[in-house]
Amino acid sequence: MLQSEEEIRLNHVSYLVKKAAVVLTQESKLRARELSRRRKSIWFGIFFSGIALVSGLPGFAGPFVINPTFTGNFNTNFGGNAGAARTAWMSAANVFTTNFSDNITVNITVDAVTGTGTLGQSDSNLVSDNYTDLYNKVVADAKTADDATARGPGGSVKALDPVSGTHTWWVTNAQAKALNIAGAGATDGTTTFGAGNPFTFSGTVASGTYDFQGVAAHEISEVLGRIGLGGGTVAGTFTNSYSLLDLFSYSGASTRVLGNGGGAGKQGSFSIDNGTTLLKQYNNQFSNGLDYRDWAGGTNDSFNQFANSGVTLPVSDVDLREIDVIGYDRVVTPEPSTGILLISGLVAGGYLGRRRKP
Asked: pTM to 2 decimals?
């Protein structure tokens, strides 16, 4: 059974988007009895949710801070696992703070509910902006080669608003901080987890369990702005609404797909160069009603719409590239000199050779 929930609340100058997650759907008639020994698909519901599982952390840090406030319910509902869950959440946050260098603090409340009805859920404050200001702020924020491509003559971010008629552009509160867009408040959002689910909090993901760091990383990324609105309605009032990430959805060269495309194979793919290069396909939201901007699947990846228990899905390079172009400043490691590169290559080669021995 697939459950989904959507709630959008007015919050002063911004709007709170509640993205509910969840549900464990099983693949045969023997659902309850085989729960512990079957691989289960996780379906994250309504339009922005899902699961992500994270990669190892790089060895550098910057001024980007993600500040959690763990609630009493988080500690109570996770009980003896609360300490491990807090550490795992911080490890997930560190994937972003070590890969991006924005001089901002993102404040996230971390909550938990009982049972398994919710796996992971995020609430994000939204800030509206006119397209001209949004475009100018995005251009001014360009730091990396991908930013330059996306904002350049053949890029996905154009000076002319691609939407006609009455509509609204939105960023999350955290994005507004990163892009210096007016209206950002202190609080950025909430991530909530179902404490009754079987989780692995560190190390190898055990069979029949879900990588808590991955679930947390996905929800954090949504608070940071990895959401699609696709022309939907915000707060029950603002119809024809779009997010910054929607600008990067294409089905081919110069063929933008701001919504869900209208069917299987018609959904967009992530592209920074106006659709010339399709880096990874987005979820078929038209068919399953889930996230617009999670990945459709394929190789194991942290931002996929669907995932299984017992596996680790890394935050891939394309995931980091996506976060980079929606307003964050990716840390780019300088190329070493030829001599250092040669030595590093030899050391790595020797290590890998030893690991391959029986």
From this structure: 0.78
CA 313 to chain centre: 13
Give Cβ neighbours of residue 265 (< 8 Å, ≥ 6 apart).
284
Distance of CA 98 to the CA centre of its chain: 16
Q: Tens digits of per-residue pLDDT, 102-147?
A: 999 999 999 999 999 888 888 999 999 999 999 999 999 999 999 9
In the three-class reduction of DSSP (H, G, I as helix; E, B as strand; rest coil), residue 201 is classed as coil
Query: Is beta strand 189-194 parallel, antiparallel or unpaired with respect to 120-129?
Result: antiparallel
CA neighbours closer than 13 Å in the CB half-sphere of residue 157: 26
The DSSP line for 97-166 is: HTTB--S-EEEEEEEEESSSS-SEEEEEEEEEE-HHHHHHHHHHT--SHHHHHHHSTTSS--SS-S--SS
What are the DSSP calls for 245-279, one per residue? GGGGEEEETTEE-SS-TTSTTTS-EE-SSTTSS--
Residue 303 CB-density burial (10 A; 0-12 exposed, 13-18 middle, 19+ buried):
buried
Question: In degrees rounded to 5, what are phi and psi of residue 356?
Answer: -80, -15
Q: What stretches of the chain adopt beta strand conformation (E)?
A: 6-11, 14-19, 24-25, 41-43, 65-70, 105-113, 120-129, 168-172, 189-194, 199-200, 210-211, 232-234, 238-243, 249-252, 255-256, 269-270, 280-281, 306-308
